[in-house]
Amino acid sequence: MLKRKIEQKLIDWKNTENRKPLIIKGCRQCGKTFSVLDFAKKNYKNVVYLNFFENPDYASVFAGSLEVDTIVMMLSALLGSEAVFESGSTVLILDEIQECPEARTALKFFRIDGRYDVIGTGSLLGVKGYGKEPKSVPVGSETVIDMYPLDFEEFLWANGIADPVIDMLKKRLQKETPVPEALHNRMKQLLLQYVVVGGMPDAVQTFVDTKQMDEVLQIQRDIVRSYEDDMVKYAEKKDKSRIKECFQSIPKQLSKENKKFQYSVVKKGSTASKYAGSLQWIEDAGIIVRCYNLSITELPLDGNAEEDIFKVYMRDCGLFVSMLEDGTQYDILQGNLYGYKGAIFENLIADVFGKMGRKLYYFHKDSGLEVDFVIRYKGQCTLVEVKASTGNTKSTRTILRHPEKYHVSQAIKLGDYNVGRTEQLLTLPLYMAFLLKEL
């Protein structure tokens, strides 16, 4: 069974006094239902489970009065002995809550009532054209947590890397001393495996159990196909084909020298006015993440982001690699990266930073200056260069030489190296990106 970070968040929520109903948001198949049910069974005497996607009839319970006693009575009648409601020891799980907007509205009443805990999960919550919006979103009556596919640290746990090893890596980062060679090589190998497997629970479990990459690829491509099916099934009619075109253009966008997202690459002659909503749909569904260009390298990053200039990455690097041509996985595991090398490792770092909850930014100037990522690290604006090979860091060095102009005094180079430092530039192995947590 895969260990997930969401477990601790659920425990923290349960230990909060006067807790509000909880909503777990995340892309399809990232493990929401499994984690919530596992937590519920371990922590509650009674678990009442409704899946609105599998059983649309359950929505009728919420069609009339939303008084808690009425809902409880209806559920008891509908589910019989499966629905035991005891104050303080029952959790009601509303799976795929976006299928029943009235159930979302009812959270407000459960919050006021306070006898039962409620957890809702949703994969297309707030996605334009998907279902009906609730009459009233229970603002202030719910706690929302975003859930992602497994991150690199969770992948390490799944592959038998225990916390003492991760603690050792943290110490090496803090002291800026090299990682012992044997561990360094093992971590590099695990990172390449993570690049191709990614974090979808089904793909990770299959990899851990069988090590059969063809089976992993089949699972990933099935997931990508199911996402495309969602686009066709749930989007508004005029958007269906546009959303799919946007999604399918991502590998092409990232293989360009200038990786800025261009609507003309989606379809010749197309514009933002025609396709912006389609791209937003995919982002709202949790499938992609945007990385915004900064007008200036200065904190606060959010305040300096250019809304209409951005790159687009897949939230999960394994799904990105599965969208590339056959044989790419084999090449990556062998360390041969060819044409896609920059895109693959950039998407990897976007995956790592994104799953940490970081917003993504980069810096590009028409003069040719370009830095892959810019983050807040240890209270400072920090440049992050991602190098698939030994590539140069000309732009970074230029920026560091002019602190009065660019307001930056530190940079990190991630690549096929061990830990080291030259003046303002900290060099780290790619696998250490997940440790750059200090804001």
Report on this model:
This protein is α/β, with parallel strands linked by helices and 439 residues long. The chain folds into two domains: 6-146, Rossmann fold; 152-435, no CATH class. It has 18 helices and 14 strands. It has helices spanning 6-14, 32-43, 68-79, 101-113, 152-158, 163-175, 181-197, 201-210, 213-234, 240-248, 250-255, 263-266, 272-284, 317-322, 328-333, 341-355, 394-401, 403-406; strands at residues 22-25, 46-51, 90-95, 117-122, 143-146, 288-294, 305-314, 360-364, 370-371, 373-377, 380-386, 410-415, 420-422, 425-429. A five-stranded parallel β-sheet has the order 2-3-4-1-5, with helices on both faces. A five-stranded mixed β-sheet has the order 10-11-12-14-13. The model has no long low-confidence stretch (mean pLDDT 93). Pfam families: AAA_14, DUF4143. InterPro entries: AAA_14 (IPR041682), DUF4143 (IPR025420), P-loop_NTPase (IPR027417). Keywords: ATP-binding, Nucleotide-binding. This is ATP-binding protein. GO terms for molecular function: ATP binding.
Tag the structure with descriptive keywords:
439 residues; alpha/beta; Rossmann fold; 2 domains; 5-stranded parallel sheet; 5-stranded mixed sheet; 17% strand; globular; ATP-binding protein; P-loop_NTPase; ATP binding; AAA_14; nucleotide-binding
